[in-house]
């Protein structure tokens, strides 16, 4: 099998036929494009999501916290705690594990999170450290935003720069190679991307603004996120390549490793759909969050306009990151 996410069609079949029972107190169920489940608790609801970090060795604790809290933020609510599972290879030291937990704790302090529990073990089943977290958020009843609520005519907005996570990982894991073609200033810029990896702030703002849908852009990049949103919402999209916010550093990394920046892991960017995109962009910029309109939700077609030509967008495959780290 290919490294990375399973084929969307095959994964959907596995999920749909293996859900246990359906409970009435589950308002939103996880699925393709829907990374969170929302559970009703009287006047409140609990939002839960889980994800591992498998594609990075450096900054793994930070990334593990943020990719999971970003899922919660994509529902428009704030995370309150996480559970942490660490699977360490036999080559690990106690210091390695301690360092990861210190990273996790430091990021939790920044986001006002409590570490609620978890599991840690050394095992021959992995050849490098794996960190998996489950994040939990709390909101008022019916407040959580669903990925599956994008509507034809919506503007599509992305925040910050695409490919930040992938660029950060490439800089750290392939430093000797990137040091040959990037300047010292560009390397420092890319290393700083880890400090902008959270979308909790924009998630909260967009939730309060009443957007139709949100999805944090992770494995599969912006095109993968667009496919998941459109599949979950049973609609299409039309986006413009020239409108995609990509930094020059990321472009250089992608050119060097023959990577498509639109299918490059992009934690730190949020994909949002709403009726009045410019109003939302102005609101985000007022709160010091860079944002750009990249296209519209459509009824059926899934296309990107590049060099004046329409190109069909295929379902997400393995993230382009694996071309770099494998």
Can you describe what's shown?
With 326 residues, the chain is α+β, with helices and mostly antiparallel strands. The chain has two domains: 21-140, 2-Layer Sandwich (60s Ribosomal Protein L30, Chain: A); 147-325, Phosphoribosyl-aminoimidazole Synthetase, Chain A, domain 2, CATH 3.90.650.10. The protein has helices at residues 8-16, 60-73, 94-110, 164-173, 175-178, 184-191, 200-209, 221-233, 248-257, 277-286, 322-325; strands at residues 26-28, 37-41, 44-53, 79-88, 114-122, 130-140, 155-159, 213-216, 236-240, 270-274, 291-298, 302-306, 309-312. Strands 8-10-7-11-9-12-13 form a seven-stranded mixed sheet, sandwiched between helices. Helix 3 links the parallel strand 4 and strand 5. Helix 2 (60-73) runs parallel beside helix 3 (94-110), helix 2 packs parallel to helix 7 (200-209) and helix 4 packs across helix 9 (248-257). The protein starts with 7 loop residues before the first helix and ends with a helix. Residues 151-305 form the PurM-like C-terminal domain.
């Amino acid at each position: 099998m290919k490294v990375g996410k399973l084929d969307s069609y095959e994964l959907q079949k596995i999920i749909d036929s293996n859900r246990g029972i359906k409970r009435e107190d589950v308002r939103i169920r996880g699925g393709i494009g829907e990374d969170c489940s929302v559970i009703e608790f009287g006047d409140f609801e609990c939002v839960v999501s889980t994800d591992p970090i498998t594609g990075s060795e450096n900054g793994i604790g930070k990334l593990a916290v943020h990719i999971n809290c970003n899922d919660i933020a994509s529902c428009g609510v704030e995370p309150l705690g996480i559970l942490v599972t660490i699977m360490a290879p036999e080559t690990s030291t106690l210091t390695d594990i301690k360092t990861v937990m210190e990273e996790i704790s430091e990021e939790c302090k920044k986001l006002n999170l409590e570490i609620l529990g978890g599991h840690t073990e050394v095992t021959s089943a992995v050849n490098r450290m794996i960190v998996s977290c489950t994040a939990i958020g709390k909101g008022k009843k019916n407040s959580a935003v669903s990925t599956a609520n994008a509507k034809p005519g919506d503007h599509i907005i992305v925040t910050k720069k695409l490919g930040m996570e992938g660029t950060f990982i490439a800089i750290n894991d392939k430093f000797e190679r990137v040091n040959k073609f990037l300047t010292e200033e560009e390397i420092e810029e890319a290393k700083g991307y880890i400090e902008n990896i959270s979308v909790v702030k924009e998630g909260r703002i967009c939730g309060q603004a009443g957007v139709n849908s949100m999805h944090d852009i992770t494995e599969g990049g912006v095109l993968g996120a667009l496919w998941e949103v459109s599949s979950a919402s049973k609609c299409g999209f039309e986006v413009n390549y020239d409108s995609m916010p990509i930094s020059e550093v990321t472009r250089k990394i992608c050119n060097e490793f023959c990577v498509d920046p639109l299918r490059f892991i992009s934690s730190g960017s949020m994909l949002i759909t709403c009726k009045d995109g410019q109003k939302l962009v102005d609101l985000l910029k007022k709160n010091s969050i860079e944002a750009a309109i990249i296209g519209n939700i459509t009824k059926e077609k899934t296309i990107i306009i590049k060099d004046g030509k329409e190109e069909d967008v295929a379902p997400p495959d393995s993230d382009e990151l694996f071309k770099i780290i494998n």
